[in-house]
Each structure stands twice: as structure tokens, then as C-alpha cells.
Amino acid sequence: MNAGTLPLLWTGSELATALGGQGSFAATASGISFDTRTLQPGDLFFAIRGEAHDGHAHVAEALAKGATGAVVARAVDNLPAAAPLIWVEDTLAALVRLGQAGRARFNGRAIAVTGSVGKTTTKDALAHALSAQGFTHASPASFNNHLGVPVTLATLPRGAKYLAAEIGMNNRGEIAPLARQARPHVAVITSVEAVHVGHFGSVAAIAEEKADIMLGLDDGGTAVLPADNPHIGYLSKRAEDSGADRILTFGERDCHVRLVAYEAGADRGVATVRVLGREERFAIGAPGRHVALNLCAVLAATLAAGADWRAAAASFETFAPGRGRGARRRIATPDGGSALLLDESYNASVPSVRAALAVLAAQDARRKIAVLGDMLELGEAGPAMHAGLAAEAAAAADLVFTCGPLMQALHEALPAAKRGAHAENSAALAPIVAAALRDGDAVSVKGSLGSRMKLVTDALDAGAA
What we know:
By secondary structure, the chain is α/β, with parallel strands linked by helices. The chain has helices spanning 12-19, 59-64, 91-104, 119-131, 148-154, 175-182, 197-200, 203-211, 232-241, 289-304, 309-315, 350-361, 382-387, 390-396, 407-413, 426-436, 454-462; strands at residues 22-23, 31-33, 43-46, 69-72, 85-87, 109-114, 136-138, 162-166, 186-189, 222-226, 246-251, 257-264, 269-275, 278-284, 327-332, 338-344, 368-373, 399-403, 419-423, 442-446. The strands form three sheets. Strands 7-8-6-9-10-11-12-13-14 form a nine-stranded mixed sheet, sandwiched between helices. A six-stranded mixed sheet has the order 15-16-20-17-18-19, with helices on both faces. Strand 7, helix 5 and strand 8 form a beta-alpha-beta unit.
């Protein structure tokens, strides 16, 4: 991440106190970076050792690009003697300490969001709604892991009123330390589903991990929980055990923030929501009942943070999902016309694929085309879960294109007339889909991050160049 356009974040003396290292603290920092590809002048560069790369190999490049200094844990070759280096024992631990210092000086309201599906959309909508009510800082993109959370906190601007942080996981034990860093006043769980179940063994184990976000609740705080989820009883008990002062629920059942009615449109929707018994009807600038339910979580979090929930509801008319998460755009087709691309390429799970298919089904298009890549980390049940989407895919789409070994099961379960093509991977599928599109089509692209479905959307976008 870069924050080079932000005002001053850290003085040299503040860095010395927070990092506890040795070396040059003359430089200030207007941003934090651990990736030279996105580094901006004024950033402080952290040389993080990863599984595949060591940031120490890129220190010289970072300084050449305008980094004010580099936080390092070992000697770096080919640097001038006066290079602005801050020496620490562990650069990741130093980044965490800086994030904790950023959170410690924050005097606003912190909201943290996790969930099996919908957490990034919920976090983005929360930031969209709160920005109109005060200076709001939010995690960029999906900065929700052991690097993203401390960077989000370390780049908290002075004087911010609200913080919207996203917390994710792939394995057991990852959420609790991130939640304790974020120390949210409001902890939101959007859902508990069979996502990453291959790593956890059961959805109940996923519920345990998601509930760990409440271990970080600051001064009791408020838990915002999904009323319709089968694990709501467990989540509520965990909230109580974690010392939550208040529990707010959202969903379509009897709850604090209830979706009473939803009117679906091709590119937007209208929701009627009852908040603590008071009803409000508002437009949403993105389609899908699943989006409306995410926004119910946002309203509950807004209420818990002491902000104006009605103003938040009014702001949803101008909310649009980000690239890879439902963004809509026109693309050129080989016959000289154009098609509508529904870009859901960033990630996928069974619930999110179903939601994407429902949005595709609502489009007014010559043909409706679904392009689906493998949903990963589902364990032994993976093939059956892919095949289980056949009826919904066939009902929503005129043609279904698939790629990956798991999606082979879906391809074979489809009626023959619905099979577009199947390929080994997204790189092989991309030109097939691009060649098949025609004027007036609507095409939805979705798959897990590891399926690299962005290769498909990139190929489709190239047709519009």
C-alpha cells in the first residue's frame, strides 16, 4: 500500500518511539510501503521477509523511488553509508508495533469487519457511508491479513473520526491477533459459510475463528452479527463471553436491522429496512439482494458507532462495488458491438457464486453468459460443491464457460445446451470467451483468487481498447 498523498503520518521521533530500533530517525513518513511496485515518494519502506521474496533485496530500489527510509533487519549490499536505515530485529514485528502506535493515538471510532463472504463490500460501503459524516480511514482493497491490518493502522491519519478495517483469515488462529491490533469499538461478522472449509474441517470451526474478532473489542464494544446464520446462537454467546456491551443483529428475520423488502433491478436495487422498529426505504447503486443484506450490516455498524444511520442509508444510492467485486463496464465484442461485463473476478465461494448468478439472471441481455473458475480450499467436498451449482447456473445463464479441475464437475453436470466450453485454466479459457461474445451479451466472470480469473477480464477489456 502507499499513502504518499496523505499528510504527515510520523515524525522521526515518533518512529523512534514506536519502532524501538537503531539508526536514522531524521526522516518523516507520509505513507507506509512493503512493495516497491506501489511505493510513493514519502513512504517508509519495510523490508519484509516473505515465503517467496525478501524485501531487503528491494531496499535500494525503494530509496531510489523516494522512500524516506527503510526498516531493515539485516545488512543490505550496495547502499551508501549514509542511507537512511532503521535497524530492528524483525521487520514484520516492527510494522505491527507501528500499527499499534497508530491505533493508540486514534481517538475516533474503530469498526472491524470479517466474514466468509461480503466483508470487502461491507467495509467499502461502510467507508462510503461514514465519509460523508467525518474523516474516515479504511483498509484499501483487501488489506486484511498479517501485513494489511498493521499497514491500515500505521497509515491512520491524524484526526480521523472513523476507521473501517477489514480482517480476514485462511487458517485457524489468524483473526485474534489482528483483532487485538485493531481494537474495534464495533466488530462485524457478515456471514459464516463453508469458505476455507478445506483448512478448517467444518463450518463450526470457521464460526469459532470468525468469532475471535470479538476478542479485540475495545472497552466492551458492540458486536454486529448475522441473524439468519445457523451459527447465530454460538456467535451471540461468544460476544457475551468476550464482554460485548451490546449485540446488534441484521438479516431478514426478526432482528435489529431487518431487510423487509427488496426490489431487484438490473443495475441497482431498492431496499426497505426496519432499524430498531423504524422503517426506511432507500435506493442502492449496486444490484443484488446480497448487497442489500451487506448494507444492513453497515447500518447496524453505523448505529453502533454513534453515526447517523439514516444519512448512511441515503448514501447507498451512490455506492458502487469495486473492480473484481461486481463492477460493471462495457466491453467491445468481435462483431463490432458491445457487451456488459459484470466483473466478479476477485474471489469466489458457493454463496458468492450463487449471488453473482442471481445478478446475471436479472440482466436484460441478448444472452447471459457465466464464466466460472475453481472455488478453492473446499477440501474433499470440492467437486460435489461445484457440481451442485449446475441447476442455478443453467437457470441464470444461456451459456456457462468453466476452467479448472474442480469446475470440470460443474461443466459435466450442466445440460449439453448450456455448456460453452471448459479449459484447463483461466489463461486457456480467456481467448475462448473473448471470441464467443456478441453484441448485447451480458457476461459475469467469477472464481477464487487462485484461479486467476482476472486474466479473463483483462482479455475482455482488451477488446475495448
